[in-house]
Amino acid sequence: MQLSEMPEILLTALQVMSYLFIFVVGTILLVILITFILDISQTKQAIRRNYPVIGRFRYLFEKLGEFFRQYFFAMDREELPFNRAQRTWVYRAAKDLNNTRAFGSTRDLSAPGSILFVNCPFPTLDQDAAELQPITIGPDCKIPYTTTSLVNISGMSYGAISRPAVLALSRGAHLAGCWMNTGEGGLSPYHLEGGADLVYQIGTAKYGVRDLAGELSDEKLREVAAHEQVRMFEIKLSQGAKPGKGGILPAIKVTDEIAAIRGIQSHQASISPNRHPDIDNVDDLLDMIQRIRHISGKPVGFKMVLGAYGWLDNLFDTILKRGEQSAPDFITLDSADGGTGAAPMALMDDVGVPLNESLPMLIDKLNQHGLRQRIKVIASGKLVTPTDIAWALCVGTDFVVSARGFMFALGCIQALQCNQNSCPTGITTHNPRLQKGLNPDDKAVRVMNYVKNLNHEVGLIAHSCGVREPRLLCRFHARIVVDRGRSVPLDELYPDVKPPLPVV
């Protein structure tokens, strides 16, 4: 068929396509030319100046590198902060899928730091297993808090995480029967809407309970305490990812609503003081605890990451001098490898003591001063799997809290964009387009499933060790690998400290 014989519509289509091709190619060439000129004329980046256009691929590959490593190159146990095996367990637990495996473990059991639980020859039968027993925090308070929960949601502020994420966590915590920490960003309506028990965290900026000068307001504290769902108050001294540094909320995340909840200026970066200006020593700390407990009538404790530890002796000695009624009702101990939305690398990487050392130290100090029964201990920091939680129970904690574990339950893919308002799963962004992918009702069920399956598998470990319920685990139920291929009992590495004998 001759060209002249082709249908007119086909000829028109060919002409349009040829023009479109020329336009696209021309546009690409124009972009390349402009990019070339921009690259050779700028002086800030040597790579772009020396290798115009193609030098930009270096920065693209650098940005994409972490994602390629995560999905194509890293083995299941190699990634940080959480490897694929850990994340997969959480994902499957949250979806209530079968978490059994075949053929053998992929974990290197000879790696230093590995935890091995000591099974007994006569494990606990299913019919002899006991439910988690209730524990009362702050028994001397006007309104004590009694709970059977073991695993709870650690502090994540509304602002650091999104509205649908807060809703999902609150609803899920209510379904699971655990508590949810508000984080230092104040009490939002979304915390309350889900119906969960709440721990109100008071950070160094005292968001939500501050006056115009940024100091603690008794009136606003009463307003918060009046909510029945608010069960306890936690004074945040420090957290593992940024000890000695206050919270950091970028301006892009400070919406009008968040600013109103926190009591700050909208659309301006909010950086909390690096410590409480009104707490200079242990007496000030105990005074603040007494003040909040008196106003609220509810249990009060504090959160810290341990570094220097000599001050613990000073704190506990002061409590004994003032009377046990002055003691905090609980201590939340964070790990140096705890998480956050934004922190300087120097603090995140190199400051603080990891939980595997600090938790035995704290428990032993409490026993040494005879305060272990009075002060409950809550362990925090990278505890996301049954192994992590069972280890903490062996050491002596009463409760475990996790933030990132619950973020994985919500669908977090460890994209490492928490501080950029571009979280692809909608958890740590206020971009409505990205938030719409997170359905609070669906994710609430996943939160519940995660808690349920965590409790179940921690129970499996406990029963294998021969105890009826997880809180009966002791240090002699675990071993820790100290060098290649050799483990020692945990109670040998950290011998139990006996409380002092009562004075007759």
What does this structure look like?
The protein is α/β, with parallel strands linked by helices. The chain has helices at residues 8-41, 46-50, 56-73, 84-94, 163-176, 189-193, 218-225, 256-262, 282-296, 310-322, 345-350, 355-368, 386-395, 404-410, 432-435, 440-464, 490-493, and strands at residues 115-117, 135-137, 145-147, 151-153, 179-181, 197-202, 230-236, 248-249, 270-271, 300-305, 330-334, 376-380, 399-402, 478-483, 486-489. The protein has 2 domains: 3-73; 126-247 and 273-493, Aldolase class I (TIM Barrel). The strands form 4 sheets. An 8-stranded parallel beta sheet has the order 4-13-12-11-10-7-6-5. A 3-stranded antiparallel beta sheet has the order 1-14-15. The N and C termini lie far apart (115 Å). The mean pLDDT is 88.
Reconstruct the topology from this structure.
Elements: H1 8-41, H2 46-50, H3 56-73, H4 84-94, E1 115-117, E2 135-137, E3 145-147, E4 151-153, H5 163-176, E5 179-181, H6 189-193, E6 197-202, H7 218-225, E7 230-236, E8 248-249, H8 256-262, E9 270-271, H9 282-296, E10 300-305, H10 310-322, E11 330-334, H11 345-350, H12 355-368, E12 376-380, H13 386-395, E13 399-402, H14 404-410, H15 432-435, H16 440-464, E14 478-483, E15 486-489, H17 490-493
